[in-house]
């Protein structure tokens, strides 16, 4: 009885503390948003200054207020207005981020140049900062609507039945208010162009509102069902999939044609798949050691794990390959930098190797909340497992890529070696608008 009352009191304190934190979060963001609006307004002559100031401040407060609200909202029922508000407020948050970066640069320039005869006034620098931020966000918004196919070639001595064996790796679709049928349709079209043997999805298939946030479930089901792979589509849950308790979630995945293998093992004649459920799910994660106890290690053992923090455990258990998502590679600068600090370079995105275990971390096939990608892309990773020996661990997979393979925690390998259309089956990735992008990384951009 005594314990129950203490627990009740603790819960009440926790709730109060969370509410206070939300207000602090909103207060800080609102202050920053108002400062940003003020700097924009002051770049205009009067009386336009007042009109612009009021208009931008209203949009700014809506932007930061709505983004705070979406993270703590409890009713996730879809509404078209909510969907639009998520996009508009997300765009503002991205704008504010870049406006502050641009203001920093412009103010420094002004500091150095303002004594130079003929130097522009401070307001001109403020205007330049706002225009630069707008252009960056416009570029990021354009970029968030494209999906790239990233080819990766891995060699594995254990591959005995069918090779090369093509796995299409998707992650972090975040189907919900911002992502629906159109983005998924484009994704499915490109997935099918890869002609995969197997498709895997490493979590966050749904956004944090679960199926409640999906506008048209039947449409999404029919689009996802179009994904074709001879050995099927397998997935695991991510942290967002179960954020809202949703009894319909498994029925929904099943209607989408996805076999969910959380805490389960699935195998075909070529590979063994081990599904680990989202790392943030309370108490729902079975140890990898117990899952691997009876698996057939003659075939490549592939672990699907939402969070790359599971790579170390997978390596200790002797998995051949781990496929992850979760990080979104930071989605847009400067989050890209923070994500790399938190997860290491190849732990945040790309191909890595830890011991005998290879890892591939996806930047996500969809995006979360802010409809902007800068420095990252929505991606479909097309992995060709090829027969090969030598390299790390003799029996484990070895990655062939020009940048070299580094430790998953502190390495610097980027995803991908361009392998072009599948060597054994010419035309696998054929499309009229296919062209090669050779800027830095060798990718196929469809
Ligand atoms: Fe995610």
Q: How do the helices and strands line up, and which of them pair or pack?
A:
Blueprint (H helix, E strand, L loop, with lengths): L1 H40 L6 H25 L7 H34 L8 H22 L3 E10 L8 E6 L10 H13 L4 E5 L14 H8 L8 E4 L12 H7 L3 E2 L3 E4 L4 E5 L11 H5 L8 E5 L5 H6 L4 E4 L10 H9 L1 H4 L1 E5 L2 E5 L16 E10 L9 E3 L35 E3 L5 E3 L1
Parallel strand pairs: 1-12, 2-3, 3-4, 4-5, 7-8, 8-9, 9-11
Antiparallel strand pairs: 1-13, 2-12, 6-7, 10-11, 14-15
Bound molecules: fe (ii) ion (FE2).
Molecular structure report:
This protein is α/β, with parallel strands linked by helices and 446 residues long. The protein has two domains: 142 residues, no CATH class; 299 residues, Metallo-dependent phosphatases (Purple Acid Phosphatase, chain A, domain 2). The strands form three sheets. The protein has a seven-stranded mixed β-sheet. Strands 6-7-8-9-11-10 form a six-stranded mixed β-sheet. Strand 4, helix 7 and strand 5 form a beta-alpha-beta unit. Helix 2 packs across helix 3, helix 3 crosses helix 4 and helix 5 runs parallel beside helix 6. The C terminus is likely disordered. Bound molecules: fe (ii) ion (FE2). Fe (ii) ion (FE2) binds next to loops. The site of fe (ii) ion has 8 residues, from loops.
């Amino acid at each position: 009885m005594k314990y129950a009352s203490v627990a009740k009191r603790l819960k009440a304190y926790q709730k109060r503390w969370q509410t206070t934190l939300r207000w602090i979060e909103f207060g800080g963001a609102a202050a920053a948003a108002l400062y940003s609006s003020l700097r924009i307004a002051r770049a205009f002559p009067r009386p336009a200054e007042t009109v612009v100031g009021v208009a931008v401040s209203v949009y700014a407060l809506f932007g930061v207020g709505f983004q705070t609200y979406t993270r703590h909202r409890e009713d996730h029922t879809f509404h078209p207005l909510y969907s639009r508000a998520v996009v508009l407020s997300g765009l503002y948050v991205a704008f504010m981020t870049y406006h502050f970066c641009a203001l920093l640069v412009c103010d420094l320039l002004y500091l150095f140049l303002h004594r130079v005869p003929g130097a522009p006034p401070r307001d001109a620098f403020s205007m330049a900062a706002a225009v630069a931020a707008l252009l960056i966000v416009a570029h990021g918004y354009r970029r968030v609507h494209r999906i790239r196919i990233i080819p990766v070639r891995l060699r594995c001595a254990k591959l005995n039945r069918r090779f090369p064996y093509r796995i299409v790796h998707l992650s972090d679709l975040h189907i919900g208010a911002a992502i629906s049928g159109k983005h998924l349709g484009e994704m499915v079209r490109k997935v099918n162009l890869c002609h995969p043997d197997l498709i895997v999805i490493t979590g966050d298939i749904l956004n944090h509102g679960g199926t409640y946030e999906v506008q048209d479930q039947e449409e999404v089901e029919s689009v996802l069902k179009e994904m074709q792979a001879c050995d099927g589509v397998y997935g695991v849950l991510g942290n967002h999939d179960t954020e809202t308790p949703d009894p319909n979630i498994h029925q929904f995945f099943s209607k989408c044609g996805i076999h969910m293998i959380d805490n389960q093992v699935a195998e075909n004649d070529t590979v063994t798949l081990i599904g680990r459920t989202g790392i943030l799910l309370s108490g729902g994660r079975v140890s990898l050691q117990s899952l691997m106890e009876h698996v057939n290690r003659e075939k490549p053992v592939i672990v699907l794990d939402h969070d790359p923090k599971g790579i170390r455990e997978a390596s200790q258990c002797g998995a051949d390959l781990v496929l992850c998502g979760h990080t979104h590679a930071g989605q847009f600068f400067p989050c890209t930098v923070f994500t790399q600090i938190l997860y290491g370079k190849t732990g945040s995105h790309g191909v890595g190797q830890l011991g005998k275990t290879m890892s591939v971390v996806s930047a996500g096939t969809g995006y979360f909340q802010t409809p902007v990608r800068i420095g990252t892309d929505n991606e479909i990773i097309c992995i060709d497992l090829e027969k090969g020996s030598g390299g790390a661990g003799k029996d484990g997979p070895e990655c062939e890529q020009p940048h070299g393979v580094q430790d998953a925690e502190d390495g610097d390998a980027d995803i991908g070696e361009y392998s072009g259309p599948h060597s054994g089956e010419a035309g696998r990735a054929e499309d009229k608008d296919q062209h090669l992008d050779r800027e830095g990384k060798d990718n196929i951009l469809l």
